[in-house]
Amino acid sequence: MVSLDHERLLHHIDEYNHSSLEGWKQFHALFNQARQLETPSAIYHQLFPLLKRHGFHTTLLSHDPAWIFSKLDTGAAHTILLYNRYATGSLNIWDACAIASQILTVELYRKWTGNIPVNIKWLLNLSDTTSASPPASLPSLLEEGRQSLQADGCLCDEIRTSEENMLFSIAEDTPLLFSGCKGLLNIELASHVTATPISSHYGSIVPDAAWRLLWALNSLKNGREEIMIDGFYDAITPIEDDAALYSLPDTASALVEQWGLPDLLLGVRGLQMHYAHLLTPSCTIKFITGGNETSAQIPSQAKALVDFSLVPGQEPDDIFARLQHHLQEHGFSDIQVQQRSSCPPAYTPRSHPFVQLVSSAITQAWKHAPLMLPITPSSHPLAPLQQQANIPILTISTGIPRTSPSQWNHPTVTALLKHKLRQTALILHQLGNMI
Questions:
Q1: Which domain of life does this protein belong to (predicted)?
Q2: Are residues 134 and 250 in the same domain?
Q3: What is the reported pTM?
């Protein structure tokens, strides 16, 4: 049930719809200019005057142009941390809509009450790559900015892919709300035998770097997809909110057809598929090389990149140490292993007040409840903040059409903007009125 106060706020947003659209039109024009610049530094210089005009004090986190940190200090008792991540080379109208909605909400709220009920901290990560792996410098960057990023809760805004719509079989206008995320351990394994070129006809007496690496990789996982590193599963923490997975439909056949596969891994279906996707750790080889297809020489070196996807309870550093021990114990002490990047998993129970608050706001804004799931299968670069400062980190994932319209006033774009304005305003309002 929507309270009278919330009804007034939503009515105010609808009343100023024309003003919001005009603000969105101007922002879209600015965004198009920024998008052509592509580099994080250039986009920062485009956004800086706009954020300043709306009262935000804007700096670069640890002087890194890829991390724009803005703060609006209102003297309120509660603080929210907003987070948006974009690849500068593939910015689109949906990205612009997400950023604009945050700024326009501040403007609308000021017109309604004259002030903002919470302090707002806003972190924009304008990466120049689409890689899901966090940069190696991220842990020290977050440690440096930990005090600056302290908040009652962190809200991450994401755009949902068409595959995710298909996976969960939900309409584009139904938001997904994740109260946690998987972790990530990205490692490099390398085998180096000799610097001397040796012909392949010596293969019966000379070690092959590619084979050494393949045997080492083969020891990590068996044919049943079980990871064979001693103690790998020991620290996994049970998730309280996995009941939501039981209501998800079986979309395995649609995914198999979409991806052109003979079947999913181990033939999983229904609940088993969703559980494996969201709540099971994995070990994936994403790159491997060794030798040269035009060479008649034994590979003298080989390299592979492996991603470990981790679930709550598993710590990247612990898993890395166990991996090193595993290689030693299984006779692969010659395999060089390096940790390239990592991010811990994070999880906040559904019963947490901030989760309840955000879920309520989404329900009122969209006029139907979000699909709530325990963790997103991707990692979150801010997950260390939950461990360091006990900040709940939630992700709102919004569905969009398969194609992106170019016009700022396209009906699907303006409808999404309106929902995001309502959603953000209600979250700020409810957080500001928390005791």
A1: Bacteria
A2: no
A3: 0.88
